[in-house]
């Protein structure tokens, strides 16, 4: 039976910035539209956190029963390591995704934007079928696109819409920026796992692009938010403050661009996620002001 600390590690707390950053950025864009609602923002955050924890447990379960994690070099996987019973991890995944669904339903009901139920359902289905089902799309190189859509576009724009009833160009810019950061986190993760994914037959975008192409993609993705900062800064000069987050990317850029492999790339995931969260916080403050 897995210990409490192993369950916490299995939930992959280092991925939480991928859920927090889009809501924070969305809150800043909502304030800029004079439409901030603290309780709607809180519900949106709880939905995002429940969803990403559910995704992590679902991936742990699905990859574990397929044997994909048998030679994993990254953080602990509960099923793959044998620390937890697969059924227990499945229950944790379904509970987290179910909680995301209930909280999302409450948010939609209280805000009155019922069409958002369809988006919420797509998010939950996307979370499960990333590595679940007979033909998981994560095994066909589509994981990065899903992350961009769900934790970029849907996360930011959904947070703004449930408060303002509309979105803005600022919100779209933040959505693309956060989505690019989230993609970069997954690209770094899949870059690390190229050897073991090839061995297990998991065809991620990284295995398709190869080592060199994947490293170039990462470097491109982490420049997108700052390019958007320049563009958005024309109308909101305070946004240029988010450039102070760029030094947080120096180590991951060195690791990815310098040919780091295996465990050398693990800190790159953490640091890229923290850069994303810091960028979202400072951008939200700038838009709010």
TrEMBL record:
It comes from Amycolatopsis silviterrae. Conversion of 1,4-dihydroxy-2-naphthoate (DHNA) to demethylmenaquinone (DMK). It is found in: Cell membrane; Membrane. Belongs to the MenA family. Type 1 subfamily. GO terms for molecular function: 1,4-dihydroxy-2-naphthoate polyprenyltransferase activity. This is 1,4-dihydroxy-2-naphthoate octaprenyltransferase. Its main location: membrane. HAMAP family: MenA_1. Its EC number is 2.5.1.74. It is a multi-pass membrane protein. The lineage of its organism: Bacteria, Bacillati, Actinomycetota, Actinomycetes, Pseudonocardiales. It is an enzyme of class 2 (transferase). The keyword Transmembrane applies. The chain crosses the membrane at residues 39-58, 88-107, 113-130, 137-161, 167-188, 217-245. The keyword Nuclease does not apply. The gene is menA.
């Amino acid at each position: 039976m897995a210990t409490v600390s192993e369950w916490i590690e299995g939930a992959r707390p280092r991925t939480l910035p991928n859920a927090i950053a889009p809501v924070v950025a969305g809150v800043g864009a909502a304030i800029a539209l004079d439409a901030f609602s603290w309780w709607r923002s809180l519900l949106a955050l709880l939905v995002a956190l429940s969803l990403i924890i559910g995704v992590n447990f679902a991936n742990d379960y699905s990859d574990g029963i397929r044997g994909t994690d048998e030679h994993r070099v990254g953080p602990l996987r509960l099923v793959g390591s044998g620390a937890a019973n697969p059924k227990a991890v499945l229950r944790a995944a379904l509970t987290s995704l179910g909680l995301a669904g209930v909280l999302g339903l409450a948010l939609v009901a209280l805000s009155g934007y019922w069409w958002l139920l369809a988006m919420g359902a797509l998010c939950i289905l996307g979370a499960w079928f990333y590595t679940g089902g007979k033909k998981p799309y994560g095994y066909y190189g589509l994981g990065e696109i899903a992350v961009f859509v769900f934790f970029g576009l849907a996360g930011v724009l959904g947070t703004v819409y449930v408060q303002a009833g509309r979105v803005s160009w600022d919100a779209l810019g933040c959505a693309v920026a956060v989505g690019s950061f989230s993609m970069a986190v997954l690209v770094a993760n899949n870059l690390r796992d190229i050897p073991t994914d090839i061995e297990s037959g998991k065809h991620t975008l990284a295995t398709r692009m190869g080592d060199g192409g994947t490293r170039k993609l990462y470097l491109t993705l982490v420049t997108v938010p700052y390019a958007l900062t320049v563009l958005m800064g024309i109308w909101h000069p305070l946004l240029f403050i988010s450039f102070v987050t760029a030094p947080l990317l120096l180590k991951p850029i060195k690791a990815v661009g310098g040919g780091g492999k295996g465990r050398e790339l693990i800190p790159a995931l953490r640091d890229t996620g923290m850069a994303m969260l810091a960028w979202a916080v400072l951008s939200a403050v700038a838009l709010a002001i």
